[in-house]
Amino acid sequence: MHAPDDPTDAPHGTRIPADISRPDRLLGPFTARQTAILAVSVAVLYGGWWATRSFLAPLTYAVLVIPIAGAVAALALGQREGIGLDRFLASALMHARTPRRRVHAPEGVPSLPAVVPARWAKAAGQTPAVMRMPYDGVTPHGVLDLGSGGNAAMAMCSTVNFELRSVAEQQGLTAAFARWLNSLTGPTQLLVRCHRIDLSPAADALQRTAAALPHPALEQAARDHAAFLADLAASDNLLGRQVLLVAREESAAGGMRRITAEGRALQRLDEATRALAPAEITVTPLDGPQSAHLVSAACNPETPTSQADGTEGDLACPGSS
């Protein structure tokens, strides 16, 4: 039996405000968006009753509009994965209308020449659409210019082996991470990215430098490790995980305010670096070339990433997901 007052057996936890991005309530429990949807629906339904009251009984009209009122109420008050049902359906419709095949072609996608047979053009399917990237460029400091969406700075985060720590250490790590969450002043995203890894460059580098090692045993060990990496590289599903921190800062109109938003995004990364240090998480901001490479890799997820690119996190074994 455990001692009832043993502090090491106490569950670790910390208080974090729930729904920190919840919109303000305008009328009772309803937000401004919900109030607008319900008010417009009530006005339309009342207008319909006013127009049909001369030849339609009130009870008959109520029976007809109850399904409509229920659907509108579900649309205004319902949620799916933390998103309002109206916004979720609007996003679903936008996704359904978005072309599935898009290419980077600022000059436009030319149509097939007239000499191509009709059956070949039909087999080729719909012409790819032009890809419109949601950012306007990357600054030398690695800040993404999102246009009307503001500016975003990215950083790479190390991982922490949480299960091997004692309860007291787990409490300290959790408290440090919670303090950073409570100190956030703007939109922040933690992204766990999974991508393919190419170990061939590392294996080749070991083979080239093995002969320069000072002892034959070290040379043999290096060659054995290079052979091991080559076997891993031959796998079809070698994956790596990368933890990214993205700090976005809203920008108003005006060039000076845009520059201020860029500096503020970088400052928030610096604040995250200091705040997450007690949680033993190393935050490494990405510069311009690194941010551009990351965006390019996100647009081409099947492109293998070299191990020398600074991948953080765990290396997934072949066959894992």
UniProtKB/TrEMBL annotation:
Q: Which residues form a coiled coil?
A: none
* InterPro entries xref list: Uncharacterised_PrgI
> What top-level branch of life does the organism fall under?
Bacteria
Protein name per its UniProtKB record:
PrgI family protein
Arranged from A to Z, the UniProt key words for this protein are: Membrane, Transmembrane, Transmembrane helix
Which residue ranges are recorded for the region named Disordered? 1-21, 300-321
Give one Pfam family, short name only: PrgI
Residue ranges annotated as transmembrane are: 30-49, 55-77
